[in-house]
Amino acid sequence: MKISLGCKPLAIPSPVWVIGSYGSCAQPNIMVASWGSICCTTPACVAVSLKVSRATYANIVEHQAFTVSVPSRDFLFETDFIGNVSGVSVNKFSATGLTAVRSNVVDAPYVQEFPLIMECSLLHMLEIGSHTQFIGQVMDVKAEEEVLGENGLPSAEKISPLIGSAGERAYYSIGKWLGQAQLVNNWLAENLFTCERLADGADIDFGNLEFGNLPLVTPDCFKARKS
Ligand SMILES: Cc1cc2nc3c(=O)[nH]c(=O)nc-3n(C[C@H](O)[C@H](O)[C@H](O)COP(=O)(O)O)c2cc1C
Considering the entire predicted model, what is its pTM? Predict the structure, then answer.
């Protein structure tokens, strides 16, 4: 039975991102943001939502830029610290021993020790309520070579990012690899004709299966997959 928990933004899991920005005297600062996500493919954009009280808020407005550094689980304690003290009172790079690197594409610093970086130019700001959403256009992505998978793109397993659980206010690490996205296409291509309810000799282009284009799929196919 589902229990109603009321009006809460409990999207679980959430990212644990470290947002880099410069203060007015070019002082590099970092904060943690979990209210964030990919928000557009073209142009490539990510969004983070910040309270106006964050030093990072004014920094981004002034410099029209921010970076997203993705910490690996090895940096749990540094990350938690970065998310609990303000750059107004503490130089978080000095305090943690992390290294600020000036981006070569936007006016913001990133964290050298973290394996994946997105360097963003401020595209839009949307005042929502308690938080303002900052939409950043990704001008470059930088990744440590050792976190790249066989296809040359970052592998979640190799990055081993921290993951947030909003309601619990807790950190997790990632679980095991389950399969490639669109794995259902390959599975259907291999097993479609074993599903009892499918019409014999159906003319299906297996190279072009789309979710909206699968009239022969029934719940039995999915049950068969699990058994
Ligand atoms: C796990 C975690 C997630 C957080 N997510 C956000 C967030 O999405 N937006 C926000 O405004 N503050 C968030 N915070 C709080 C800020 O990181 C924190 O207030 C920080 O001290 C602000 O630093 P600054 O004043 O130097 O910008 C989060 C803190 C933690 C620990």
Answer: 0.90
